[in-house]
Amino acid sequence: MPWKETCPMDQKIQLLSDWLKEDHTITELSQTYNVSRKTIYKWIERYQKQQARVLEELSRAPLNHPNATKPEIVSQIIDTKLHHKTWGPKKIVARLETIYPDKPWPAPSTAGHILKKEGLVNERHYKRHTPPYTEPFKCCERPNDVWSIDYKGQFRMQDGKLCYPLTISDNYSRYLLSCQGLFHPTYKNTRPWLKRAFQEYGLPLAIRNDNGSPFASVGLGGISPLSIWLIKLWIRPERIEPGHPEQNGRHERMHRTLKEETANPPRANMREQQKAFDGFKMTFDTERPHEALGQQTPAKLFLPSNRMLPKKLAPVEYDSYYTVRQVRQNGTIKWKGNFVYVSQALAKEPIGLRQISEAEWEVRFSFHVLGILDDRIVKVLPITNKNKCLLPMSPV
User: Fold this and answer.
1) pLDDT value, residue 396
2) Is the CATH code 1.10.760 the one for domain 71-117?
3) Residue 315 and residue 34: Cα distance in Å, rounded?
């Protein structure tokens, strides 16, 4: 008689009741209830020792778990999470393996279960993203190929003043070169900190930024006083497309972590806020493992550039096949008896013009293409997809 309509507990009670009546042998009970003789003897023995408690199902779980994570390992995982609240289990395990390589650290998935059990994991809501954009920028194959620079969104400190964090990072190694809190995001405030990074780490080949001030302008070629300085240093200024922060995704991802760890909540004043930035930079560069770097720290991959900041800027020169014009104070040049506006940011700077068709001239400042001068309308036109094919590649 199989046990289908009644639960095992009811069957145990009925079987033991029949046994107590002494009307049936063990063999008969075995056949009636479809239970082995050995099992019946086991139940009878438990019943005689514990009375009704024998009827409860005993746990089959082992008393000891040889593969369980040791308490001291669990404690260190939790302590590391409490010290670095924005780190996930992969970074925590990678960091602990670096500090204590001789200990048997669990897999990140096990560390994640430990943190979740302790209530230290926030459920993340994932958003669907469009396919990755193919970046038409300089390839980043080694340190100092491309740096990124940006102002992380401003926020108000506890004293009521706004803080604008200026950040500079190396795209290859993710090394955070500078994180400085400033009161205003101006060219005057930005250049000294960028110059300080050049003095400490050397010059990159390119610097990537957005289209905002002071990095770029709405003028011809997006030229700005800061980008003019970079061009004179033979650093190519790269601008991401408007509304496409993913083109500078590595830097933007760092910004998210920066906000979580230093501005949530904001500090009392700029002095205390800068202390938080300095502490974040130290941890981000030398302690925090990066999954994209094989769980290494940026400091292990970054090397200073061998291109040093010159004491004096070299004059901008052009090949003999360029026609050179000096930009006037009002941003114009004299061209075939006419005044043609180029950019006031280039006042007193030489620009080069190279003929590319019967009525069109390529206009450059050093290696940076500004636009195309059309003799028919006596005007410099911005570069478009239609006319870009006429221009040669930049030399850097």
Assistant:
1) 43
2) no
3) 100
